[in-house]
């Protein structure tokens, strides 16, 4: 799931508002001068720029679904704020810097920013997976975690209720495994560097991370995965793994066996 997390405060020239917290029911003040449109779901607020009403309504409905899925895993209410710029260029300005080409949505602080053209090209399942993935980043945070854990966790939540078979959701990795090539280590920052030169490697990085988190939920429990995530944010991943009798090295070994079992 290609996306990007920005820790930067959004400072683009278009951004005129101090965004309300995602949990607030208040309407954000004008995001774009005079042209902001807003839709409300049961749990979500969607703010668009010249966005068709039907698109806003669909996003509010999908953001509500995503919120329920994330809340079900995290055990806490989630109230999404989704921002829909008019174009990918406008999305790039909103996040301040960094390419958004190829991204369908991204987490940016307390909000999810949708890249309209790329999002529109996704099928309905993909739209729900992407929104749920990004909303997981917003709700759970990513600081101080290795990328395999925060990207894998976001995909764990994103795919949990999507109804896709593992070899379908992890098609690129499945191809490698069937060719006899198992990944040797959990994907690090270099594997997630979305420079566009090797999109298949990037796809596999997400799939590898996803299966690491899915392994933890399958072999221990979903609650264990959530507690590990929280503990790793506080103390680092090695210390968080210790109560499970795991280290990163032994997790890696067991994850490789799980990947072979799921995709071989
Ligand atoms: Zn992500």
UniProtKB/TrEMBL annotation:
<keyword id="KW-0732">Signal</keyword>
<protein>
    <submittedName>
        <fullName>Basic secretory family protein</fullName>
    </submittedName>
</protein>
<feature type="signal peptide">
    <location>
        <begin position="1"/>
        <end position="25"/>
    </location>
</feature>
